[in-house]
Amino acid sequence: MIASGRQRIDKWLFFSRAVKSRSLAAKLVEAGGVRINREKATQSSDSVKLGDVLTITLERRILVYRVLSLGERRGPAVEARLMYEDLSPDSTPLEEDKTDS
């Protein structure tokens, strides 16, 4: 699948260490927690390619990643960080937002 320049979103999320298991990645996608280029991913078999921008909603965080490479395995965290560019917005605690208003 890597030869074609595309990879399943559940595999990519697992290999990039965004989630702890491939089954959790599939559940996240099917629950609507992942967008590929602003389009909601509906199936774990949806594919990503180089340059795609993923918006991932995890509990209390929103991650925005640009895909830089496709994974071949779930390696160490240092290797996983090379798979994406982190475009995530800076998170500010809700208490700070309330006091600024």
Structure description:
- The chain has one domain: Structural Genomics Hypothetical 15.5 Kd Protein In mrcA-pckA Intergenic Region, Chain A (Roll).
- The chain contains four helices and seven strands; from the N terminus they run βααβββββαβα.
- The strands form two sheets. A five-stranded antiparallel sheet has the order 3-2-5-6-7. It has a two-stranded antiparallel sheet with strand order 1-4.
- Strand 2 and strand 3 form a beta hairpin.
- The model has no long low-confidence stretch (mean pLDDT 89).
- Keywords: RNA-binding.
- InterPro entries: S4_RNA-bd (IPR002942), S4_RNA-bd_sf (IPR036986).
- It comes from Mesorhizobium denitrificans.
- This is RNA-binding S4 domain-containing protein.
Compact summary:
The chain is an alpha+beta fold and 101 residues long. The chain is 28% helix and 27% strand.
CATH superfamily: RNA-binding S4 domain
Q: Radius of gyration over alpha carbons?
A: 14 Å
Number of strands: 7
CATH domain class = Alpha Beta
Low-confidence stretches: none
Note the gap between the termini.
49 Å
- Named CATH architecture: Roll
CATH topology (level 3) name: Structural Genomics Hypothetical 15.5 Kd Protein In mrcA-pckA Intergenic Region, Chain A
What's the helix count?
A: 4
Largest sheet: 5 strands, antiparallel
The structural class is alpha+beta
Give the spatial strand order of the biggest sheet: 3-2-5-6-7
What is the N-to-C succession of helices and strands?
Answer: EHHEEEEEHEH
GO molecular function, one term: RNA binding
Protein name: RNA-binding S4 domain-containing protein
Keywords: RNA-binding
Pfam families: S4
